[in-house]
Backbone:
């Protein structure tokens, strides 16, 4: 699913960036797109960063689904 329409990156791209070592919202944008344009995707990217941190802390990968992403997927 597309996360950022301005730069055309997906949730898979964000997860790859996180798995590749990005540890913050800013790091994800630097890796994928330099910086946000309109900023509408920032809450979703922040959610995925927090989800990734929580998963790493629990040692369970992506065990906690991002609520916004899960809702979007359930309505698609
Ligand atoms: S949707 Fe990502 S910067 Fe606009």
Residues:
């Amino acid at each position: 699913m597309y996360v950022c329409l301005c730069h055309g990156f997906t949730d898979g791209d964000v997860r790859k960036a996180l798995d590749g070592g990005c540890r913050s919202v800013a790091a994800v944008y630097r890796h994928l797109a330099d910086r946000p344009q309109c900023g509408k995707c920032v809450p979703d990217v922040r959610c995925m960063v927090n989800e990734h941190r929580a998963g790493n802390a629990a040692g369970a990968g992506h065990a906690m689904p991002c609520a916004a992403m899960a809702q979007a997927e359930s309505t698609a």
Summary: The first helix runs from residue 11 to 19.
